Amino acid sequence: MESGGASPMPRTATPLKNGKRKICVYCGSSPGTKPEHMEAARQLARVMAANDIGLVYGGGTVGLMGEIARTLVSLAGPAAVHGIIPEPLVKYERDPTYTSSGTSSAAPSANGTTTELAIPEEAVFGKTTIVPDMHTRKKMMAQEVQAGAPGSGFIALPGGFGTMEELLEICTWNQLGIQRSGICVLNVNGFYDGLMNWIQKSIDEGFIRPGNMEILASAATPEEAVKLLAAYKTPDSVLKLKWGNE
Ligand code: AMP
User: Fold this and answer.
1) What pLDDT, in 10s, does the model give residues 80-97?
2) What predicted TM-score, i.e. pTM, was given to this entire model?
3) Whose CA is nearest to atom 5 of ligand 1?
4) How many domains does the chain have?
5) Ligand 1 mean position to 29 CA, how many Å?
6) CATH code of the domain covering residue 153
């Protein structure tokens, strides 16, 4: 595990590519109550391994986050996974007893205080970078995708507030033109139908430009999600801001 901060985002929208596709996956720190959610995380990892795609994710070892990282490392080795986690979250999201739907953060010790849990091996969850805060994490994750080969992008599996916040933030970065990779929800059993309906309603009622519907794709399977990212073209309707200049 290493500690690190983010270097500035490249000022151009077309940074140097490093040859390997990278997908940043946003997903729940909880496993969900339906087995298909964890299975979707495993399936996505299998498709990424089959296509030699690297994973960038939030660095947790719990819930869907831990499942996709563990599965991809088991198939493609630790170098295929890079987790980026804010230091304050280490004690929660690398704790096997934690779920965001409400359990303890760390095991209570005999004297009532909490105990530090060991950081799992890189051999199980891949490389982990600890950063000071959430903003640094998000920026680093986006930078890594931007530096990836064509077809790199962002996929959201089911999740809660954290997943939704990260997903919608990256959509707004596309809308502003400060990042240009594709974004797709993996709509496991219609999990994201409500979000897609809201986007359509926002277009119908004049809050989102019609062309910007294309910023967020929806896929029924991991294979389709990976294909949609590869086919993504920035819609003309987005703004053309340059990262770091505004
Ligand atoms: P959740 O979907 O709520 O289980 O969260 C999934 C991930 O989103 C976790 O790693 C959270 O740390 C992360 N996350 C990103 N932004 C936020 C935020 N503003 N508040 C809470 N969690 C966040």
Assistant:
1) 999 999 999 998 888 777
2) 0.86
3) 162
4) 1
5) 8
6) 3.40.50.450
